[in-house]
Every structure is written in structure tokens, then in C-alpha cells.
Amino acid sequence: MSFLLKLFMNRTKNVAVTFCGLDKAGKTTMVDYLKTGQFNENIHATLGMNKEIIDVPGLTFNVMDLGGQEDFRCIWHEANEKTDVLIYIVDASDFTRFTETKEIFHQIVSTQIKDDVVIMVLLNKADITPRINGGADFITAFGLNKLSNTWTLFTTSSRTGQGIYETFTWLSNRFKG
Ligand SMILES: Nc1nc2c(ncn2[C@@H]2O[C@H](COP(=O)(O)OP(=O)(O)O)[C@@H](O)[C@H]2O)c(=O)[nH]1
Ligand SMILES: [Mg+2]
Hints:
Blueprint: H1 3-9, E1 13-20, H2 27-36, E2 49-56, E3 59-66, H3 70-73, H4 76-80, E4 85-91, H5 98-111, E5 118-124, H6 136-141, E6 151-155, H7 164-175
Parallel strand pairs: 1-3, 1-4, 4-5, 5-6
Antiparallel strand pairs: 2-3
Bound molecules: guanosine-5'-diphosphate (GDP) and magnesium ion.
Magnesium ion is lined by residues 27-28, 45-46, 65.
């Protein structure tokens, strides 16, 4: 293969990304925001998985948005075993499910993803939980400090768009070049 061809082939990388998290955390709303640039409140609960392709300059994200209801969680591993990036969305406004979401997260990390998968935890719905800041307290409580994979944490809202640009700029920079 010629040098030039290689150069051009390298220009677009396919990055596999899965969106996981409990039902109602805001996964599908986030994917929709990435496609349209706005909040859509008429999103239906995801049955099984949605496949989406999102292009940013030089990168193609193959996104699997996985249904969060208990019945569907058993199929997550199929997508997670092949993924480059795990985006795990936490509903920051729902403290009652904190333990449940933490357990599911660590189960995925320890049984479904490879060591080189980049983990991005999004503390979502920041618009209705303005005091959430994703600081040291959350990092320790959620056990992020114990991970051996590369991880990062962002505070986001698909209603106001807060943190979304930062999150995906970080992701895109990570896989470019
Ligand atoms: N206020 C607020 N509501 C959100 C946000 N993201 C999602 N929602 C709402 O949360 C509910 C569940 O969202 P959905 O995307 O279906 O969650 P999924 O089950 O994780 O895919 C919907 O009523 C959304 O409108 C957010 O950032 N802020
Ligand atoms: Mg959904």
C-alpha cells in the first residue's frame, strides 16, 4: 500500500462507543442531542439497542445506545466486549439509585471491557442538580479512584447542553492523530 493511501486511510478512525447506564439516566437523549444539537423531550424508552453513527472531523463514532431496563442488561456485554470507549451515564438527580448504578458500573468494568477501553463517566441532568460537581467526593464514592483503565468524569446536561462540548472534544482529541 502506498504511503499516500495509508495517510488517507488513517484520516478517519472508527471509534466504537457504548452508552451504558440505568434506564432513564439520559443515554438516548444525549445521543439525540449529539445528532441534533438540541434537547428533545419526546424520547421513547430504548428497547434492546439503538445503533447510531456520529461523524466528527477525522473520527467516526459507532455508538451503541443500550436499553437500561433490567431485561436488556444481559445484552450489554456483546457491545462492550468490542468497544473502544465506555460512556457510562449516571442520573445525578436520582440519589436513590446510586448504589444500583455503581454496582452495575463496576460489573461492566470488571467483566465486559478490555483493559485499554477508555471510560467516561457522565454525571448527567446537572441542570436539575446544580450542586453536583463531580469532585473528589463523587470520585471516591463511585470508586473511580480504584479503576485501572483510563477514565474521565464530566458533568453534563442534555437539556442545557452543559458539558457536552467538553466531553466530546476530550474524546475526539484522545483518538485523533
Ligand atoms: N432535566 C433533564 N432531563 C433529562 C436529561 N437527560 C435526559 N433527561 C430526561 O430523562 C428521561 C429519560 O431519558 P432517556 O434518554 O430516555 O434515558 P435512557 O433510558 O438512559 O435512554 C427523559 O424524560 C429525558 O427527557 C438532562 O440532562 N436533564
Ligand atoms: Mg434509552
